[in-house]
Amino acid sequence: MQNQKNTSQKPQSGSEKSSSGKKASMKSSQLMQLFEDGLKDIYWAENALLKAIPKMIKNATSEDLNQALASHLDETKEQIARLEQVFGLINVKAEGKKCDAMDGLIKEGIEIMESSEEGSMRDAGIISAAQKIEHYEIATYGTLRQFAETMNLTEVEKLLATTLQEEKEADLKLSEVAMDAINVDAAEETA
Ligand SMILES: [Fe+2]
């Protein structure tokens, strides 16, 4: 809907060039703000995962699942270091801002572990929780990588793309573990 405010903000003839330049720089500073907010959100989320993944490992029975989670725990540490590099490159202090989405996903995972018997069923629950977490991270890093590309932050974009790839591979690995053993065992337990 076109309103009067919008109409009045249209550039006047003669000042069109500088006005559109101003608009572009406003847009890019807003994009930078979104980018910084997103970085702080995922920085909080990754640090929360540093505490949550060991709980998942403790609760998992399958050796494959244990290994997949343990290697993702190591990757998570590297991803945190990578985020710190990104903060450094854009001259912003590395700090987290509570991510309610990740907080909820982790709480859901803990509930699943507490409400299921140890063994294949709990393993299947852990995988489902871990994959929801991965999908959230893939969405977040995908967006941040795109923002970095739009702002021509080449180094930053590379770092985020590396993490995005790791998250995708972790998700695939979890799918493999689920298909290989756990879902079959879980089905047998309920039979
Ligand atoms: Fe991650």
Would you mind describing this structure in some detail?
There is one protein chain. This protein has 191 residues and is an all-alpha fold. It has one domain (31-190): Up-down Bundle (Ferritin). Helices cover 83% and strands 0% of the residues. The chain has six helices and no strands. The chain has helices at residues 4-8, 16-59, 63-89, 100-114, 120-150, 154-190. Helix 3 packs antiparallel against helix 6. The longest helix is centred in the first third of the chain and has 44 residues, at 16-59. It starts with a helix and ends with a helix. Bound molecules: fe (ii) ion (FE2). Fe (ii) ion is lined by residues 46, 76, 79, 137, 167.
Give the CA-based shape. Answer: elongated
Through-space gap between termini: 58 Å
Uncertain runs with pLDDT below 50, 5 residues or more?
A: 1-16
Oligomer: single chain
Mean pLDDT: 88
Q: Please give the share of residues in helix.
A: over 70%
Could you tell me the CATH topology label. Ferritin
CATH homologous superfamily heading: Ferritin, core subunit, four-helix bundle
Q: What's the CATH class label?
A: Mainly Alpha
Work out the strand percent. under 5%
Which structural class do the helices and strands define?
mainly alpha
Topology:
Blueprint lengths: L3 H5 L7 H44 L3 H27 L10 H15 L5 H31 L3 H37 L1
Helix pairs in contact: 2-3, 2-4, 2-5, 3-6, 4-5, 5-6
This protein binds fe (ii) ion.
InterPro entries: DUF892_YciF-like, Ferritin-like, Ferritin-like_SF, YciF
Protein name: Ferritin-like domain-containing protein
Pfam family, one: DUF892
